[in-house]
Amino acid sequence: MTDPKRLKISHQTGSYEVLVGKNLLAQIGEYLRVVRATGPVGIITNNTVNELYGGVIRDHLRSVGLLTRTILIPEGEAYKTLASAEQVISALIAQGMERSGTILTLGGGVVTDLGGFVASVLFRGVKLVHIPTTLLSMVDAAIGGKTGVNHSSGKNLIGSFYQPDLVLMDIDTLKSLEDRDRVSGFAEMFKMGVIRDTVYLDFLMSNLLTLIEGSTDEVLITAIARSCELKAEVVEADEKEADLRRILNFGHTLGHAIETTLGYGVIRHGEAVILGMYGAGWLSNQVGTLSQEDWNQLAEMLLKIPLKVPIESLDPDAIEASTRKDKKVVNSQLSFVLLSRMGEPQMQTGIPVLMIKLAIDAIKKAWASNT
Description:
By secondary structure, this protein is of the alpha/beta class. It has 14 helices and 13 strands. The strands form four sheets. A seven-stranded mixed sheet has the order 1-2-9-6-5-3-4, with helices on both faces. Strands 7-8 form a two-stranded antiparallel sheet. The mean pLDDT is 92.
């Protein structure tokens, strides 16, 4: 068996390891012992993932003497709320969760974000282990210490910064994903290439279909590990998003607004980010300094990513209004992450309302002509 790739991520109060490989779930008990995790282990997951992997994990944890408690949450972004977090906390306390225990998140981004938030506030913070089971959660939610739940006004408006003690990424869990879920994860890897490493971006585009199909383990492990490494570099430099870390929001300002207005479940997070990156790239060329050559290259790459979303339903007025509720609004000014050139993001404020609406029109026209 090949050893997993190991990444060490440092933060203000310590560090943790990210392991990317195969057959990691079968060794979960030993990995938790290494980070001195103790029971009870509160496993937060959903019914689908629990049926696939919950039994294996519980058996291995019990084999090393760890008690487990499993809390199932409904599937979908609509349940990533304060009400859900409170229900999870109540269930954990009722089942005997202790201050010395461990929260283990098992699932996609909703489980990872919500479970991390629960770990950060329960008993003012307990040990936290992430086992992301989707490509998106591996390269996004599980890395960097952001936790959060949604509010009716927008995504992730309530949350905290709370670092895990360990992250295990077992690519065997990706075998059950639909292509749309792989596309969603690919979007976040693509983003890291656009803003940090154009050589990596070329690697992603050269292996686009392989990554979406998940057909080659080594390519998948390499792509995931490099994306996490790039994100870690940013997070280590700016853990609390005071400055540099804001570049990770490239494509997310419009992306979050698209998610909110279309409705959670209609469009995947990564799919919305792909559209958001197109809009941000268009703005970078129109009101920023991105050259026409770079914009043409970016647009061509984005349009190669297969999307199955209701482009015709995008409402420029509603999306623009939603951006004004974004958590990145400071002093009534919305900060956009634009590109000065490929691989070089920059922050820009004061973009006119009309330009935001025109960016949505540009998205609609691009995908209408691409079908």
